[in-house]
Amino acid sequence: MELRKYIERLNDNNWEQFTTFVKSWFHDRYILTIKEFVEWQYKTPFSKTSNINVFVVKIKEKVMGFLGVIPLSFNYFGKDIYGVCLANWQIDETLQSKGFGYEMLDVALSDAQIAYTTAYKPVLERLYDKTGWQVHSDKQEQMLVRRFVKIFDAEKVRKMIGKEDMVFNDVKNISANDEFKFSQVNSFNKSIDSFWESVKKKYKITVNRNSKYLNWRYKNHPMFDYKLFVTEKDDEIKAFVVVRLEKSGKYTTGRIVDFAAEDNAEEFMLNAVCKWLLEQKVDLADFSFTGDFHESTLESTGFKETNEEPYASIPYLFSPIDHKRHSTNFAFKIIDENLKNLGTVTYNNFYITRGDCDQDRPNPR
Fold first, then answer.
1. In this structure, what DSSP letter does residue 141 have?
2. What's the rounded Cα separation, in Å, for the pair 263 and 238?
3. pLDDT by residue (tens digit) across 194-215?
4. Residue 101 contacts residue 65 (beta carbons within 8 Å)
């Protein structure tokens, strides 16, 4: 069977078949049934085509699988390159183990120089491993996204996880620094581009966090209301942070979904945004990312990594609260072999935040 002929882009002609398949696997209000969201997420400003970057398997007028691709501009050791994030992959059970997964992956990565994914299904680990993706650390353990949390209301968090005898470091001491200025903004202007050019050498492999990306991802999100903040010194941006307040019943979480800063502005930025979160009466804040970044500053400002108790019991998902899931995986592939001459790629120098993938997305029900 020539598999490639069954793979096509999502478009108006197959949209109805696509949503029928999505509903059969998830539910009637699953986020990928909302066309406005699908077009926003898979037709980014960095796409090489004006079409939706979702590839479907269509057999006899019936969609039986799909793979979503988010096109992005990447910083790779100071060089701008074209990368993609794989987000949402499903194949009908009757087509599994017949080669469609490999074929879809080949189509999706045809013009990318680098690719990554998070929260992939365990069944895909073997496929990624066989096609040259890095899925394991040097210790041969599955790579995971790191997560740090800061507790603002220990009593409520204890009740959330159902373990009221746990002892938390309930940190509420927020310091200030008059050297910097902290403010909320409605969008990111060209000043953020100058900031990013000056700081991107710190984040060796990551999505380019310029105004084009940040405004698309956060200001122009079709459903979420993100809060955008900057720290300035002498009228120059030294750090930015993006936050979303997530309410689930009686609990409120401050999701730090993006963050970048010059070294000397890290602590001020985190303290300032935590002060703002305290004013919003959040119960806890969290920040998820890959790599070896910001660790000492997060710890000095009261954040704790969730790799041990009691913090490991705090749910990763809050809409609705999921007590079974406490982490998410991560994998990447360097597709353009010439890039390897620019620097050594490791998990520690690959910086991806919750906002750089589709993990911070609406969950209508």
1. P
2. 9
3. 999 999 999 999 999 999 999 9
4. no
Contact present, 135 and 142 (Cβ < 8 Å): yes
Distance CA 357, CA 255 (A): 14
Neighbour-count burial of 17, counting CB atoms closer than 10 A to its CB (0-12 exposed, 13-18 middle, 19+ buried)? middle
d(C-alpha 78, C-alpha 200), whole Å: 7
Measure the CA–CA gap between 247 and 255, rounded to whole angstroms.
10
- Read off the pLDDT of residues 25-57 as tens digits, 9 standing for 90 and up: 999 999 999 999 999 999 999 999 999 999 999
Residue 253: count other Cβ atoms within 10 Å of its Cβ.
Answer: 24
List phi, psi (to 5°) of 333.
-145, 130
pLDDT-derived band at 185, boundaries 50, 70, 90: very high
Spatial distance between the Cα atoms of 70 and 83, rounded to a whole number of angstroms: 9
Cβ neighbours around 132 below 10 Å, total: 9
> What confidence category does residue 363 fall into, taking pLDDT thresholds of 50, 70 and 90?
confident
Residue type, 243: V
* 216: its two tokens: 């698309």
C-beta separation of 180 from 241 below 8 A:
no
What is the Cα–Cα distance from 80 to 187, expressed in whole angstroms?
Answer: 23
